[in-house]
Fold this sequence. Notes:
- Chains A, B: Keywords: Carboxypeptidase, Endoplasmic reticulum, Glycoprotein, Golgi apparatus, Hydrolase, Lysosome, Metal-binding, Metalloprotease, Protease, Secreted, Signal, Zinc, Zymogen.
- Chains A, B: GO terms for molecular function: carboxypeptidase activity; metal ion binding; metallodipeptidase activity.
- Chains A, B: Its main location: endoplasmic reticulum.
- The structure is a homodimer of 448-residue chains.
- Chain A is α/β, with parallel strands linked by helices and 448 residues long.
- The longest helix of chain A has 20 residues, at 277-296.
- In chain A, the strands form two sheets. Chain A has an eight-stranded mixed sheet with strand order 1-10-12-11-13-16-14-15, sandwiched between helices.
- In chain A, helix 1 runs parallel beside helix 10.
- Chain A starts with 5 loop residues before the first helix and ends in a 7-residue tail after the last helix.
- Helices cover 36% and strands 24% of the residues of chain A.
- Chain A has helices at residues 6-19, 22-34, 40-52, 60-75, 133-138, 157-173, 213-224, 277-296, 318-327, 356-367, 387-391, 406-409, 422-441, and strands spanning 79-91, 95-101, 105-107, 110-111, 123-130, 147-150, 178-182, 208-211, 230-235, 238-252, 257-267, 303-310, 334-339, 347-353, 377-379, 396-401.
- The first copy, chain A, folds into two domains: 6-88 and 242-441, Zn peptidases (Aminopeptidase); 93-236, 3-Layer(bba) Sandwich (Glucose Oxidase, domain 1).
- Chain A contains 13 helices and 16 strands.
- The A-B interface holds A 46-47, 50-53, 102-103, 105, 108, 188-191, 213-214, 217-218, 221-222, 225, 274-275, 408-409, 412-414, 416-418 and B 46-47, 50-53, 102-103, 105, 108, 188-191, 213-214, 217-218, 221-222, 225, 274-275, 408-409, 412-414, 416-418.
Amino acid sequence: MIITSPCFLYTSDIATEIADYADVAKRIIDLAVFGAAQNRSYRRLADFTDTIGNRVSGSENLNMAIKYMYNAMTQDGLDVHLEPVKIPHWVRGKESAVMIVPRVKNLAILGLGSSVGTPPEGIEAEVLVVQSFEELKHRASEATGKIVVFNQPFVSYGETVAYRAYGASEAAKVGAVATLIRSITPFSINSPHTGWQDYQDGVKRIPTACITVEDAELMWRLSKRGQKIMIRVTMAAKTFPDADSFNTVAEIKGWQHPEQVVLLSGHLDSWDVGQGAMDDGGGAMISWEVLSLIKDLGLRPRRTLRTVLWTAEEQGGVGAQQYYNLHKVNISNFDLVMESDLGTFRPEALQFTGSDAARKVMEEVVKLLAPINMTKLETHGEGTDISPWMQAGVPGASLYVADSRYFWFHHSEGDTMSVQDPQDMNLCSALWAVVSFVVADLQDMLPR
Amino acid sequence: MIITSPCFLYTSDIATEIADYADVAKRIIDLAVFGAAQNRSYRRLADFTDTIGNRVSGSENLNMAIKYMYNAMTQDGLDVHLEPVKIPHWVRGKESAVMIVPRVKNLAILGLGSSVGTPPEGIEAEVLVVQSFEELKHRASEATGKIVVFNQPFVSYGETVAYRAYGASEAAKVGAVATLIRSITPFSINSPHTGWQDYQDGVKRIPTACITVEDAELMWRLSKRGQKIMIRVTMAAKTFPDADSFNTVAEIKGWQHPEQVVLLSGHLDSWDVGQGAMDDGGGAMISWEVLSLIKDLGLRPRRTLRTVLWTAEEQGGVGAQQYYNLHKVNISNFDLVMESDLGTFRPEALQFTGSDAARKVMEEVVKLLAPINMTKLETHGEGTDISPWMQAGVPGASLYVADSRYFWFHHSEGDTMSVQDPQDMNLCSALWAVVSFVVADLQDMLPR
């Protein structure tokens, strides 16, 4: 006698239901990777970034980018609308740093988002070089009146970014007048990287910028030899009142449950250096490409496929947080939230956060990607913009790519179309489309 | 009966003679790689570049560098002297380029050595983008009054550098007013690379600079879409009368044939960007290190070991050519000329140019490097500075290293201490010292 548990029955049923999508999945893949849509997401990204350039929160470029995408997706025959958001407006202004003792050497810097500026004549001070917060604590008495240079080694982005985020306030607590922080990257061609930083409440706000790995190591060597170092840093950075912006929303309405949603996303804003091709133009473009592919094939899922291009992600997921606040009342209708913000290089896996039952469904879904050999399902969906939903229990998925060089370019002048590959983007689009379409078309929403 | 040919006898004798150096070679290797001299060439290079920085032909920094090395090698107990040389004096001055149509975008540029400047207000002109000299020829009629942008793909440095060297004159011949050339590198983080360029006699001299791979590709995409591109380029570059400089010469006199010489070398000058650590601080330091190692071990070869730190290599081997002109009268006493100017990363081989008979000797010599597993002898010694000697028939050797990233940093702000590794430099020094000492100490000079 064979006893079948309900769970087994469920799995078996859903496996069969999903396996029936093999033909549809194959058609999506063929169109995206080998057919008429081949290289389209790459071409769209090139047209977009070549036309607009970078587009930092609060900038006129970001306004232009939103208009550009609104028009482009409308012309593509999609249902597009904008949802208003208030976003930070920080402007870098002119900035420079020069080591003046023991010799004159220009330092390549990038001020950090939200940093205050210096007086117009700059800040000139002696330098204290430390390798960690720990060392800063031990040498707190030496920091007063100094520019603290952090030469922390790169361990991982997730771990090392703490120096960029909190370095200024930690140094201010022990009396520093400015901070220069080694860029958060494992590799450099004397290339500084920017990013957001957070002042702590009640702590003096001091100017803060990233310098290059090379210059941080240079000053560390000088200080190890007991040499006195002086720097003059000048930053015209300024924060203006919050600006008006929009999340850009395009969708294909579901035929059976239009109120239920599979959400695809990337962020449209970027930093104010480089071209924002990798971070996150690619994620935005493949999320648009999904709707184009589904439409081109004359498909329409049971549930709504919604693409959201977030605004002001780089300032801490500002657009996405406001979207969540506005739409969380309908949280029970959000089936799956997806974000691509780790690059659109060669896809390696779908990262997924959800219940065990939902994971079982997703394991079947990724099997449909066998024709392009991308059937790996990892744990932990990630993405600043989808995390409020995941924290509230909505299943979330993200695109994981072969990203060994991602942080070489991240938030630097090196984030350009030259790091993107059309065929890799075809594969990202195919994966993104098969997963979202099938989940949106299943009989049932993903179990929570 | 066994018949031994004279050649076999010769080979056998020299093989035995060289094999007897195994103990000496081992002592040199032990000192350089594991002993008291461990990391010394790296430390010296760090002290030198951190103190002086870059040192372009004609600059005060180059004067300081020569003084620094004269003093340092003298303090090391070596016999040091300077040999006067007249060298080019080109000064970059302030320079910038901005794409103004179809949108405003700053272009990172580096003017090329010997380029003329622009008028103070700059040159503003429409752009013609080409991918090759061939394409420029086909589109010659479109070039008049334009800024020609070369977006040639990187094939190899040796092949692709022709665009940097000759791009300006080729474009001027068809009426261009300036040239912007894609940097000669296989990889970029929006990093421009400089280098020497040659104006052709009788051709109008137009300003010429390198732009980044990324910006060259951007403008190529724009032009492929039929978009008009306008650029304003401003360069204050200026050429001054030739300046006074020196080749820096240090030596350990041979005990038996002091007039016979094994010459070791690297060049002391660099470009005016980056720190000149890789090109060619490393080569200079290991060539000094050889003398230190031999002296530390109390060794003295039959022939003189002479280290020459060339001046103005980057302007076409200017110091080395004058050295050759001065010393070629003694050419019969030059046993072997060696140069390290391909980087001091992990050594892979000794490159050698010489007669078959000389190669047989060198094949035995490199066997002495078995303890560090570096017994590879390649063909074709190379080096701008030693080539006059090799062309005149003197055996020449160069250090070949694992250089896959060499051109990523070459002539850019990325040429810093951060690309150097102390252990790799130990190995380079050991190889360099064993080869030069043994050749200098053999009964006979290398056969020509």
